[in-house]
Amino acid sequence: MRGSLLAGFMTWQLLKVVMACLAHSWTCSGLLLIWHLLLMPAIAKATLVSYKPNIVIFLADDLGIGDVGSYGNDTIRTPNIDRLAKEGVKLTQHISAAPLCSPSRAAFLTGRYPIRSGTDQTDVFRVLQWLGSSGGLPANETTFAKILQKQGYTTGLIGKWHQGVNCKYRNDHCHHPLNHGFDYYYGMPFSLMGDCRVTDPPEMNMPLRIKLWCYTQIIALAVFTLIAAKLAHLVFISWKFIFLLTLFGSLFFISWFSSYGFIRYWNCIMMRNYEITEQPMKVERTAPLMLKEAMSFVERNKEGPFLLFVSFLHVHTSLVTTEKFTGKSKHGLYGDNVEEMDFMIGRILDVLDNNNLTNSTLVYFTSDNGGHLEAQERNARWGGWNGIYKGGKAIAGWEGGIRVPGLFRWMGVLPEHKVIDEPTSLMDVFPTLVNLAGGTVPQDRIIDGRDLMPLLQGLVQHSEHEFMFHYCGILLHAVRWHQKDSGNVWKAHYVTPIFQPKGSGGCYDIRFCPCSGERVEHHNPALLFDLSRDPSEEVPLSPETEPLFHMVLKKIEKVVEEHRTTLTPVPQQLSFYNSLWNPWLQPCCGTFPFCGCDKEKEKREHF
Ligand SMILES: *[C@@H]1O[C@H](CO)[C@@H](O)[C@H](O)[C@H]1NC(C)=O
Ligand SMILES: *[C@@H]1O[C@H](CO)[C@@H](O)[C@H](O)[C@H]1NC(C)=O
Ligand SMILES: *[C@@H]1O[C@H](CO)[C@@H](O)[C@H](O)[C@H]1NC(C)=O
Ligand SMILES: *[C@@H]1O[C@H](CO)[C@@H](O)[C@H](O)[C@H]1NC(C)=O
């Protein structure tokens, strides 16, 4: 701060001298200019960032912006997250690049829209489905961790990854965190999905299992008989029918197969670096183990500089919560889970305090996308709450899917208790951290994030984001335009999902709103809102109600055209082929297919 003021003052003085000199002699001004060029950058750099701060990132999974005390929730208890808001900067228009985990996290790690790295896809599978599939964050993408590592940081990731593991064979680890800039990894390389819990959903009972196997056999027999009969021209049945029958049979087979808990074995594992520590994992003890790992990472690396990325399995379904927090909140299991995560954050902040690291550590808190409205179990809400914003997880256009909490704390450097309403992106973390570490962002590719430090420090009034593109998979659903001179935040929607029930803000019949097909509506002209006046996107503007209507849409269309020219085709990480389960890519503890181990047996399992 003082450095930049000094730099500004000196530049001004210098300009005055240069002007005066210009009138007299060219030599004089030339000499001064050389002096200026040599000295100024040194002064500016040395005083603005005099040391490399430690970095701690807390990333929640599917947490809604309305679930946090400091964002207006008065019944959920999040004192530790709120402490970050009190001691730092709260962003109210913090936007994720995608409304689902795999693409949102890929963008977060690389500072680029997911479409640039091929980590998003429309409708087939928008997130990785198997740990044993070949898709993931491409090895030639550069994460902020990779650059920080080069700048002398010790980098650690604790928790969820969901960016793939292998590409071509079982242990090539091409997508693994250790191949993406992390020195240390402990966590779940996949995502906490329903199948990971032994009791929930309950394992299929034996009679049903036998029945399914029986059906599979009968259908297989029928298919073979029909094929034989058709080839011998004995029956007139279409290939389509045989195909459907086969498909049906396969489904029964998969259900039967999965009933043995195989999905749990394939996807629900824990790793320490390249080693599998639990297969399948015992989800009940994962949170205590993660917390312990995060705390000891800080202790081990307190000499700094370090980057600790805590990527929570909270608050994704199935909301695994320890006994200590179960039944304690006012919002059922979901609230319990949020409060448990807050507790974990508090413990890690304590470690910073106890080691006198608080003032030399930049702490950041966010969520990968909005709360999942449609998540319900046993008549209870299992998903997050997005406050006044419409829509939720999986929906790219409406604010509820992409507007998430964003808190930055760096005491002594950033202001305390400050609120910033400017549009910012999770992708901004990439250049912000790279610059703080003294590195440079890659020059051979487009980086969509912008350095947040000047905005957070209050050196500038506006964020650098004038336009933001809201992709649903690879389809552009909406565009935001922050018109800086007027303060308007326009948003044009080209495509919106069709809610079921109407007006509910979600697709409750199918659990996730799709990006295309029959369940979306196309708008021409686009639906236009001004978020600065109508943050809930209730009433679309029209040429009658908004004199600038045509001007705004025209401007946005022009920018979209320019944006499209910056896109280049890349391999699709979530293509059908890349999303298949491959036995030869399946991480396996033991001899495939007899995978299974538990190396955490001796470990404490409670907070
Ligand atoms: C607080 O969060 C809970 C749980 O998501 C939600 O049900 C409730 O409506 C929220 N309260 C406010 C005031 O936003
Ligand atoms: C705590 O850290 C600050 C720098 O952040 C340093 O000036 C101070 O001496 C440290 N105090 C102790 C007790 O180590
Ligand atoms: C940390 O920064 C705060 C705010 O600037 C200051 O009040 C406090 O004394 C600092 N603590 C240490 C240990 O330097
Ligand atoms: C990574 O490799 C793919 C495939 O060769 C290429 O299309 C893409 O442009 C590369 N990305 C970067 C950032 O170099």
TrEMBL record:
Question: What cofactor requirement does the entry state?
Answer: Ca(2+)
Secretion signal, residue range per the UniProt entry: 1-20
What GO cellular component entries does it have?
endoplasmic reticulum; intracellular organelle lumen
Name all Sulfatase N-terminal domain ranges: 53-438
Record-level Gene Ontology MF annotations? arylsulfatase activity; metal ion binding
Keyword tags: Calcium, Hydrolase, Membrane, Metal-binding, Signal, Transmembrane, Transmembrane helix
Q: Which domain of life is it from?
A: Eukaryota
Q: Where are the transmembrane segments?
A: 212-235, 241-263
Q: Does the keyword Cell division apply?
A: no
A Pfam family matched in the record: Sulfatase_C
Which family does the UniProt entry place this protein in? Belongs to the sulfatase family.
Stored PANTHER family? ARYLSULFATASE D (PTHR42693:SF5), ARYLSULFATASE FAMILY MEMBER (PTHR42693)
Q: What is this protein called?
A: Sulfatase N-terminal domain-containing protein
What is the source species? Anolis carolinensis
Annotated gene:
LOC100557882
